[in-house]
Queue: 2 jobs
Job 1
Amino acid sequence: MLNNNSRGSWSGITGFVLAAIGSAIGLGNVWRFPNITSQNGGGAFVSIYICCVLVVGMPIMLAEFLIGRKTQRNPVGAFRALRPGSPWALTGWLGVVSGFVILSYYSVVGGWVLHYVLLSLKNSFASRSPQEIAGMFTALATSSSLQLFWHLIFMLLTIVIVVGGVRKGIERGNDIMMPLLFLLLCILLVYALRTEGADAGLNFLLYPRWEQITRVSILEALGQAFFSLSLGMGAMITYGSYLGKETRLVHSALYVVVGDTLVAILAGFVIFPLVFTFHLEPAAGPGLIFQTLPIAFSQLPAGHLVSIIFFLLITFAALTSAISLLEVVVAYFVDEKGWGRARASWILGGIIFFCGIPSAIWGQVFDSMDQLATNYLLPLGAFLIAIFTGWTLSHEERHTEFHGGEITTFAYIGWSFLIRFVSPVAVALIFLHKLGMF
Ligand code: TRP
């Protein structure tokens, strides 16, 4: 066993909660959530999503925190410590592999966002026609060299923060970027809610259109919940492993879940009023933030400033998530292979950069990586984590980790029920659906 003190730890509950919220809030909130909500029944989808988050997401998050804090190890080491010599270590492995896969293409999108920060700074959207603005995204998406350049810069930023360590790198990065993110979001909210399209935008996002809800929407909501809450690949096991025994896990999980969901909904409160003010297409798919919104920025009062704020906000969201993805991989090599943190971060970050090159060059590779991760790796990981916590760990192993009365008997019974019966069945349903079983 390595000396655990050398692994690093959070300075306290605030640092941990901010970092976990930083991992959760990402491109999934500001881009994916508004997008699928607009295509899946508005308020009806939002209500289903909130149920999924509370009934499936919250219990699995608590399970990941518990496994991490109990073992103080990376995902592979955690399963090894709890069930030595069993195949459960494969679940940890699956997490490390998922970290590689997700970060390789996540960083490409992170690069696009950096490119848009620069375009905004240069005031490039002003006095351009909608076609010219839409063309800027096409130009980026078809230029391998430009994408590779920004992908490299984004990976470098991620690596530099992770090299700094748990407290001086990850915690400090989140301490700076997350409060700024909330501040920028508040500014944009005040601005967007005063535009002409505010009523129409909110109505579009929140008015329940139940007739658009199908079985597929429910499964979409579950998949989105995992991606958005960073569940199913041990990111929360890894962050939980840097916790001291005194931290209250249930409270922390609640903060993360509420914060992440709130930001997803508020991002919609910013995006749709702007889209409706100019009668643009709200269900524009992937182009929503890179093509549709810049058209709005080009015509809005103070649009230059608003566009800078908007893309900076997304940069902070994407970067604090990317850090957590790299940390899972780095923690494995530090704990299990005895590598130094700097060496692990540079080498693995470099390999992930290379793995991301095909995604930057060929859109199809990008799509398949995203499909592989969100449709297969994360649901499988979440399912295994739920089964492990609910059925393999004994009641004593689970219950003793909640010491000092940090969970009430009622809440514990409720959580045990959800993690043993509800979560695995729900995840199995998404999985079978994705495999085309029904
Ligand atoms: N949650 C992030 C988002 O919403 C993405 C992310 C970061 C993630 N770490 C993760 C997803 C771990 C799954 C697992 O964009």
Job 2
Amino acid sequence: MNRSSVYDCSVIELDCHSSDRRGNMSVVENGKSIPFDVRRVYYLYDVPGGVERGGHAHRSLYQLIIAVSGSFSVTLDDGKLKRTVFLNRPNRGLLVVPGLWRTIEDFSSGAVCMVLASSEYDEEDYIRDYGSFLNLKN
Ligand code: TYD
């Protein structure tokens, strides 16, 4: 995890099935759209304006973050560089590799932030103290 950089993360265009009259559908499939198998899905919603979520790093978790509704900004930090990605399309996902501090903020009204994760919830995988994160990275 100590080698990962903000440039190891990328925005992935998801498969989008469109129809003029019936709307759109996007698909995420293990082994095709993303470089990990999905073991858990969670989503943030009803986040009040001005609130920041996240504020932690993961030792080994991969994540795909999708704005399935509304918009928000994800800031990635590798201990040296920061990079902010604005997400506002349900057919786009931000791939986040392990070893990055990430925060999510500027939630629009009605925003839903869906996270597809590579493993089950494990508090041991979290680094929740920014100073400890910097020590591990540098
Ligand atoms: P937390 O990681 O603090 O949320 P955020 O970083 O987005 O602000 O998670 C909030 C609470 O939910 C915390 O008590 C842990 C719990 N939680 C689970 O039980 N399972 C999960 O998959 C996740 C992501 C969190």
